[in-house]
Every structure is written in C-alpha cells, then in structure tokens.
Design a protein that fits this description.
single chain, alpha+beta, Aminopeptidase, globular
C-alpha cells in the first residue's frame, strides 16, 4: 500500500524527478508517453495547481510514484458536471521501483482519495494506441468510456465507478 501525500513547494522537485525519470525510461524503451517539454518544472507548474499534485510514498516514507488529481477536466471530459469525479493525470512510477505493483498501489491511493472526497468516479485519459496501458488500467477495474481526438493526439477515456 502506498500513502498519498500532497506535493508542497519543498517536495515539488521530488515530483518532477520521479516524473522525468519515468518519462526518460519510457522513451528509452521506445514507449514515450509524454513529450520532454511536458514534464519540465515550468510546464507542470503552468498546467497544474500545486494542490492537485501527489507523491505516493511507501510506508517507510520513500517517494516512488506521482500523480495529479483534478476536480474537473474540461479538455477531455467537457460534458461532466462539477463534482462528478476526480481526474487522474501524470501517474508515474520511478524506474527504480517499477515492476513491484506500485502503479496499482498509486491507483489505490487515488481511489481512496476520491472516495474520501465523496465522489462517485475516478476518470483518466491515456494514449489510444497503448494496449499495455489499457490492460494496466482495465486490470484495476477501469472501464473504457470512449475516445477523444485532441489535435494530433487520440486518447482513450477510462472511468472507475466507485458509487
């Protein structure tokens, strides 16, 4: 089990380090998910409020994963009314800790926070052409809810119903 901790100005660099290391590892495996310019400190600070960012920690306090939880996501879920879900972004596990179940554990932390806030659904988008990621989310219980084309990108939408 991982413990979710809000990112602070003091831990923002840890969030960036984990996200960047994960992005580089994916790129090295030929599975690039994020463009390098989308995981810089400036890009993350511009795109996300600090209070949306989370570190996922082991019980010993080691940060091993990241994610962001948004209260609304009009870019990918424009028809959702306010208060209908939390929206997961930037889920990443540091390469030194991959393959140990921390991805699902981080999803568990996001699910617990969604339930604690009294929301009925956790939603996300992921690349349309990534069957490995689709299986990962589906194995956790997420259900495909369609696709959205955003300029050159096509994404698959997923929802985990909690009600």
């Amino acid at each position: 089990m991982l413990i979710s901790q809000p990112v602070t100005s003091e831990t923002f660099s840890t969030f960036i380090a984990i996200l960047s290391a994960s992005a580089r590892a994916l790129e090295a495996r030929g599975e690039a998910l994020w463009q390098p310019e989308h995981v810089t400190p400036e890009s993350i600070a511009d795109e996300y409020a600090l209070e949306a960012l989370r570190l996922a920690l082991t019980p010993e306090g080691e940060a091993v994963a990241t994610f962001a939880l948004l209260e609304h996501d009009p870019q990918f879920w424009p028809d959702d009314p306010p208060g209908s879900a939390l929206y997961l972004h930037k889920l990443a596990v540091h390469p030194d800790h991959q393959g140990r179940g921390y991805g699902h554990a981080a999803l568990g932390a996001a699910r617990r926070e969604t339930v604690a806030r009294g929301l009925p659904s956790l939603r996300l988008d992921t690349a349309w052409d990534r069957p490995k990621l689709h299986r990962f989310y589906e194995s956790f219980g997420f259900e495909a809810r369609g696709k959205r084309v955003m300029g050159p990108y096509t994404v698959r939408l997923y929802a985990l119903n909690l009600a």
